[in-house]
Amino acid sequence: MKRFFNSTLKFSLVYFSLLLLDLFLIVWGRNELWRLVTMPVMALLLIVFYIYNDKSARPWKFTFMVIALSWFLFANIAVLFRNEAIMLILVSVFFILGNIFYILRFANNRDFDFIRLLPILALYLIYMFVILQLTLDNLGDLLIPIFIFLFVTLLTIQFALLRKSAVTKNSYYVVIIGMVFLLMSHTSAVLSVFYKTFDNQDVLTMLLYSIAQYLIVIGVVNEKKAL
């Protein structure tokens, strides 16, 4: 077991094999309950891989990362029952909590140039304005949970950007790419529920989300070493 999780190649092959199986189940459209196996197992693989491989993190940062991935595990399960309004709220809460613990994991005490971040903050505001304009009429009572959900995701990207001086270059960019993919997956999910869907949108959302989580974990475990 230890030998398997210490090998990024072996772990990646199993992880992406499960992802392909999960995408096939989405396209096939039958026996979706099998996704109650594929999605949690993928999340558990990420948790165990992280536990085996992050040897340099401070104990509290290590704990924050495990808690974050655990909340995403719960979200992976809850999202399969998203047809109920209460489950949509629950999914949003799980994702919000996961992102909050990502923020705590990414946080550092290094100085940063706030002025350089202003253009990025402007992009965040434009993004939120566009998404809310497209979905506002259909959000109803879910306006506040979805707003917080998207806002916290953007805030997580901000904290990922602030890692630059504290981690290796490769780790920094891999996590940033992962966070962008995560935002894209969240955006796709929100638009599919509250705006309109297109063919195979669930496939796209799951693909982006799974790659995002993989890249974030790979980037974090290599904060102090080259990939």
Automatic annotation (TrEMBL):
UniProt keyword Nucleotide-binding present: no
Places the protein is found: Membrane
InterPro entries referenced in this protein's UniProt entry, alphabetically: TMEM86B-like
Topology of the protein relative to the lipid bilayer: Multi-pass membrane protein
Membrane-crossing residue ranges in chain numbering: 12-28, 34-52, 59-79, 85-104, 116-136, 142-161, 173-197, 203-221
One GO location term (cellular component): membrane
UniProtKB keywords: Membrane, Transmembrane, Transmembrane helix
Superkingdom field: Bacteria
Pfam families: YhhN
Protein name from the UniProt record: Lysoplasmalogenase
Source organism (scientific name): Psychroserpens burtonensis
